[in-house]
Design a protein that fits this description.
Elements: H1 23-26, H2 36-47, E1 53-60, E2 66-73, H3 79-91, H4 99-102, H5 109-117, E3 123-126, H6 129-136, E4 141-145, E5 151-154, H7 184-194, E6 200-207, E7 213-220, H8 226-237, H9 247-254, E8 266-268, H10 271-279, E9 283-287, E10 293-296, H11 314-343, H12 351-361, H13 368-388, H14 391-411, H15 417-429, H16 436-456, H17 458-474, E11 476-477, E12 480-481, H18 524-527
Antiparallel strand pairs: 1-2, 2-4, 3-5, 4-5, 6-7, 7-9, 8-10, 9-10, 11-12
Helix pairs in contact: 7-10, 11-15, 11-16, 13-14, 13-15, 13-16, 16-17
């Protein structure tokens, strides 16, 4: 007599609990049905007979007495693993595996298969169609058995993905060469490799009613500020949208000041940057399908910091960081200063330089403001074209295009040579910023300062600069002042603001992002380099 055939006096017979009830009166539309054919038909109707959805009907047990169905998505599931570890397990003689002796009267067939027969790592119970579709379209395999209003989700995800490569947007001369990929689990593993700490906690969420994008929150428990962690959870839970395709969608939905040109959420492709931020008490938000990880809270000075600052000599790192601040001011104010001085304040220039500039502008039909506007717009077009064109010719096109256009404009007498020099230096300075989205703020505000300079001269620039400082001081990032530790000023946090002090002096974490565990080094004096004692 087969193991799955009904036997009147058997005490180990597995009878589905759902067979004792009328499922039509108890199960809702979303719940799985006891009939395997009804479940299969519902899946086909819901997915529109999609050709990449594979439904394999099989029979298990001695003599094939029990009907079962395997559901998976072609291209998202590991087909060899499905055949070797799932179908083969189910289609073998269950009695030969010893399952008959292990099954108790309280257990049903699905529980017995999960506990004794399945050799895969991740198995979850399934009771409704919503979870079925989410798991099926995520790459998992689904097992349903006739007569049971429940099933199993079998972890079987597998798809072709990009390997771990060097980050394209945040390169360094010295430092790790690995960058995040589009796979969420690969990205969390890269962070785990950096921080082998049981206090590194990770929470998972699913956002997007249609995309059902997996989002992970990572932070170090006891180091991160609990209030900021709660605020991150709250803002993510408030998101109610049909789709999340990139972390930029999340950023736009959780940032503090949407209309400010300054980003209040930091993004990076580098695992070492994320690990360093977590050690400071910040929170990382990882989104499946993108290599860009969000870090909050983000402060103004953070966008001038590069991982390389901490891998080179302290003096070199400090000088390079100061150079970035100076380059940002050039990218922001250089054209405006040139317009203001040549239009309103010529007496500030040395006579020789004034004569040279006057000679260059002889025959130029446009005022300085129009000159600068033409050149700036032209350079922005060339920059954008270089980004969108194939990488092999994009950079060459930008350089050659800028050179040819600049030379032709000067020879034609449309633009003065001095203006070409100023705009070129401005464009180069805008590339010094380690983060692309922060450099865009200087490119946007530059035009506003040019208008103020053309209207009011240096006084207009001064008014605009004061307004800019006030705006920066008014910004918040998840409750933290954007300009901290400069405003409000914090003495201890100046060790890693404008300059970089030696690492043995950084024995405390930033005060504003951490309220509990402040100490990074228990005995800073022992870490200070010193000659050996005789």
């Amino acid at each position: 007599m087969g193991f799955f055939k009904k036997k009147g006096n058997s005490k180990v017979q597995s009878t589905p609990p759902s067979q004792t009830k009328e499922t039509s009166s108890t199960n809702s539309t979303n719940d799985l049905k006891t009939s395997l054919q009804d479940n299969i038909q519902f899946v086909k109707d819901s997915l529109g007979e999609s050709t990449d959805i594979v439904i394999r009907e099989i029979r298990i047990g001695r003599g094939g007495s029990v009907k079962a169905g395997i559901f998976y998505t072609d291209g998202l599931s590991d087909t060899p693993s499905l055949q070797n570890f799932i179908m083969e397990t189910l289609m073998l003689d269950i009695k030969s595996t010893g399952l008959e002796k292990k099954l108790t009267p309280e257990q049903n067939l699905l529980t017995a298969l999960k506990d004794f027969a399945m050799t895969v790592g991740e198995i979850k119970d399934l009771t409704n169609f919503d979870d079925l579709f989410t798991s099926l379209l995520s790459g998992d395999a689904i097992l349903l058995i006739d007569g049971y209003a429940e099933g199993l989700v079998i972890g079987n995800k597998h798809w072709v993905e990009r390997g771990i490569t060097e980050p394209a947007s945040q390169t360094v001369v010295r430092g790790p060469r690995e960058g995040f990929s589009e796979n969420l689990r690969v990205n969390t593993a890269l962070v785990r490799r950096k921080l082998k700490d049981p206090s590194l906690w990770m929470e998972s969420k699913v956002i997007g009613t249609r995309t059902k994008t997996n989002v992970a929150i990572m932070y170090i428990h006891g180091v991160a500020n609990d209030k900021i962690v709660d605020e991150v959870r709250l803002r993510l839970d408030r998101i109610d949208i049909d789709g999340i395709l990139e972390s930029g969608n999340i950023e736009g939905l959780i940032e503090d000041s949407t209309y400010s040109p300054f980003p209040t959420v930091f993004n990076t492709e580098r695992p070492d940057t994320v690990a360093a931020a977590l050690l400071e008490g910040r929170i990382a938000i990882l989104v499946d399908g993108t290599p860009f990880v969000l870090i909050v809270p983000a402060l103004f000075v953070q966008f001038f910091q590069s991982p390389e600052d901490y891998y080179v000599h302290t003096g070199i790192g400090s000088l390079i960081r100061l150079l970035r601040f100076f380059a940002y001011l050039i990218a922001l104010l250089a054209p405006a200063l040139f317009i203001a001085i040549t239009t309103f304040h010529q007496t500030m220039l040395p006579p020789a330089l004034l004569i040279s500039l006057t000679a260059q502008r002889e025959g130029v039909p446009f005022p300085a403001f129009i000159e600068a506007l033409i050149m700036e717009v032209t350079f922005e077009i060339l920059r954008e074209a270089g980004v969108r064109m194939p990488r092999s010719i994009g950079s060459a096109m930008s350089i050659v295009g800028a050179f040819v256009i600049g030379t032709a404009a000067v020879e034609a007498g449309i633009i003065s040579a001095a203006m070409v020099i100023v705009v070129s230096i401005t464009a180069i300075s805008s590339f010094v910023s380690p983060t692309y989205n922060f450099a865009i703020s200087a490119r946007i505000l530059r035009f506003g300062f040019m208008v103020l300079a053309a209207s009011f001269g240096l006084f207009g620039i001064a008014i605009g600069f004061v307004a800019l400082i006030l705006h920066l001081c008014s910004l918040r990032s998840f409750g933290m002042p954007y300009m901290s530790p400069l405003a409000p000023f914090n003495v201890s946090d100046q060790k890693d603001t404008l300059i970089v002090v030696p690492i043995w002096k950084m024995f405390t974490r930033p005060r504003l992002t951490n309220q509990t565990n402040k100490v990074r080094q228990q005995d800073p004096a022992s870490a200070k380099p010193q000659p050996p004692k005789k």
